[in-house]
Write a structure and sequence with these properties.
The chain is α+β, with helices and mostly antiparallel strands. The protein has one domain: Ribosomal Protein S8, Chain: A, domain 1 (2-Layer Sandwich). Helices cover 43% and strands 21% of the residues. The protein is built from 13 helices and 12 strands. A 7-stranded mixed sheet has the order 2-3-4-11-5-6-7, sandwiched between helices. It has a 3-stranded antiparallel sheet with strand order 9-8-10. Strand 3, helix 4 and strand 4 form a beta-alpha-beta unit. Helix 1 packs antiparallel against helix 2 and helix 1 runs parallel beside helix 13. It is globular. It binds NADPH dihydro-nicotinamide-adenine-dinucleotide phosphate (NDP). NADPH dihydro-nicotinamide-adenine-dinucleotide phosphate binds next to strand 7, helix 6 and helix 12. The site of NADPH dihydro-nicotinamide-adenine-dinucleotide phosphate (NDP) has 28 residues, from strand 7, helix 6 and helix 12.
């Protein structure tokens, strides 16, 4: 399998062209290309160029509106509601997160409730940007069923990612961003494409048997939640926060309504922002820095997000799967 080298600018242009040629306006194309480029830059490979063909499917079928605008309403001192109007989630986020940040800074806490938007991206971009403004952030979203609740061999939960970001003065935020599945389906698909095995416990075959073959999981099998019933509880929480609480679908309802064009279905997202300046009477930054230092002094510990930040320092070309690049070019 061969790779080709593309600079970050070339990745941006490749992505921008394909979004623009498939019905996105200039603004949406720029926002999406920026997100794809940043995912490749940081090594979030399952959410960079790899996702572009699926976005194109959703644009081509008309499910995703590449020229639309979300409706953003300030409901109260601490609630922002964004109806995505079938735009891509990064567009909705670009327009609603500044409102969330403003309310959280003024009032100590604020929630952004997003509906009718098309997600499928990584979640660190939203929590990181909120934490860069000195706020703690938690975000989650559901998807279509791919993960069996503890005790079942049938999918009910999405891979339901959850991201948390902690702000640091004069340092990048500490950010974790993880599927509540034992492995994100995107990673399973990458492993299938690259011919790698996945760890036992990642998922089951369609007959409910343990397997290390990513194809058996991706094609008719099922993922398992991380950490057995504990991860199952967190995946359930994500369904409730990004579904019933914000006023959007559970994963199984999303699947019932989706047109199955291969593009990301319409769904909701929950984002919470909290101001430590308003909540804490202590020097929270020095206090938490000591905690992070202590963590890092305990052997081979690294903070979540550090891998991405290290990748980000490399401004050089990225080595992208050639078949994928050719496929994206053909879609332009
Ligand atoms: P990983 O398991 O690769 O990583 C999860 C988190 O753990 C990351 O923040 C990572 O930081 C951190 N981490 C990894 N290894 C270590 C370590 N040794 N020590 C400390 N921290 C560590 O992510 P997933 O495969 O679960 O998810 C990948 C992406 O897929 C996420 O961005 C997620 O949002 C996205 N996703 C999106 C979905 C959607 O529907 N929109 C559905 C499911 C997943 P670092 O990045 O620095 O390695």
């Amino acid at each position: 399998m061969s790779n080709i080298s593309l600079s970050l600018d070339e990745i941006f242009i490749l992505a921008k062209n394909v979004f623009f040629k498939n019905g996105c306006d200039e603004e949406t194309s720029n926002i999406m290309a920026d997100l794809v480029m940043k995912a490749e830059r940081d090594g979030s490979l399952s959410h960079g160029l790899f996702r572009v063909p699926a976005y194109v499917s959703g644009l081509k079928s008309g499910k995703i509106n590449g020229k639309g605008n979300p409706d953003i309403k300030i409901i109260s001192a601490s609630v922002v509601k964004a109806n995505g109007n079938n735009c891509l989630a990064p567009v909705v986020l670009n327009k609603s997160i500044p409102e969330l940040i403003k309310l959280a800074k003024e009032n100590g806490v604020a929630i952004l409730s997003i509906t009718n938007s098309h997600h499928m991206a990584a979640m660190w971009p939203e929590t990181e940007i909120i934490a860069e403004q000195g706020l703690v952030a938690i975000a989650c979203t559901s998807y279509k069923p791919a993960v069996a609740p503890a005790g079942s061999i049938k999918p009910l939960f999405g891979t339901n990612p959850i991201s948390f970001a902690w702000p640091r003065k004069n340092k990048p935020p500490v950010v974790f961003d993880m599927a509540t599945a034992s492995m994100a389906m995107g990673e399973v698909q990458v492993a299938k494409r690259e011919g790698h095995k996945v760890p036992l416990g990642t998922g089951l075959t369609k007959e409910g048997k343990d397997t290390t073959d990513p194809a058996e999981i991706a094609d008719g099998g099922v993922l398992l939640p991380f950490g057995g019933y504990k991860g199952s509880g967190i995946a359930m929480m994500v369904e409730l926060l990004a579904g019933a609480l914000v006023g959007d679908n559970f994963s199984y309802e999303t699947a019932e309504k989706d047109n199955n064009d291969g593009g990301p279905p319409s769904g909701g997202e929950f984002i919470l922002a909290i101001s430590p300046d308003k909540l804490s009477d202590t020097d929270w930054d020095t206090h938490s820095s000591k905690f992070f230092d202590k963590m890092k002094s305990m052997g081979d510990v690294r903070l979540p997000g550090e891998r991405r930040y290290k990748n980000r320092l490399d401004k050089g070309p990225r080595h992208i799967n050639e078949d994928l690049v050719n496929k994206i070019k053909s879609l332009s």
